[in-house]
Amino acid sequence: FTNHRKPELTVVKQLDPETDPGTVNFTINGTEFTNDDDGFGDGEGIDPIYAALVGNTVSESAHGDTNLADYDATWECTNGESGTGTSIPAFGLKYGDKVTCTFTNHRLPQVKVIKELEPNDDPGTFDLFINDVKKADGVGHGGETGFQNVPAGPVKVSEGGHAPTNLSSYYNDLTCDWENSELTYIPEGTN
After folding, report:
1. pTM across the whole model
2. Most buried of 74, 131, 142, 157, CB within 10 angstroms?
3. How far is the C-alpha of 76 from the C-alpha of 11, rounded, in Å?
């Protein structure tokens, strides 16, 4: 008789930043793990389970109010495999392997554009853009885009006059408030 030690697989969740409240469920080889319906947050994971020699699949899915579209996801396993996304392509293990796979969700930056007019009762209406995509249509004083996910890196915000408003009838100022960011505001034209 020859006994071969079954391979073991552990899955761990990491969030960036660590204080992010997001939670996920894991699915390993078709079995869903929900952490007793609490989901897995930063630093939490599944204790080692026995895995197959071939065709192992591992994925994460949103738990509760978490929306995975708010994150860039990466994964890395101690067997040297790594990639992007919320699922790991099928992979094999050897007898006696003890592999840990870590999913890291990086919270995307968010930008909100708010329109202010002076005087506040000015009838002008404007379209608001983030990275050249219209996010608010025909808003007046106090109108906004709501927080929008953007890729890490440079972000462009702009506005356009919404008919019949003519943007050239106004002097334009732009101010930015940065929360939890190391970015610096660099003006580009009058946008």
Report:
1. 0.77
2. 157
3. 10
What is the side-by-side strand order in the sheet with 157-161?
Answer: 133-139, 126-130, 157-161
Write the CA distances from 145 to 55, 110, 136, 137, 154, integer angstroms. 45, 11, 5, 9, 18
Complete DSSP assignment for 126-142: EEEEETTEEEEEEE-TT
Q: What is the pLDDT of residues 69-128, one digit of tens each?
A: 999 999 999 999 999 999 999 999 999 999 999 999 999 999 999 999 999 999 999 999
CA–CA separation, 128 vs 124, rounded Å? 13
Joined together, the tokens standing for residue 65 give 């109010």
* Cβ-Cβ contacts under 8 Å for 60 (sequence gap 6 or more): 13, 24, 25, 26, 27, 68, 73, 86, 87, 103
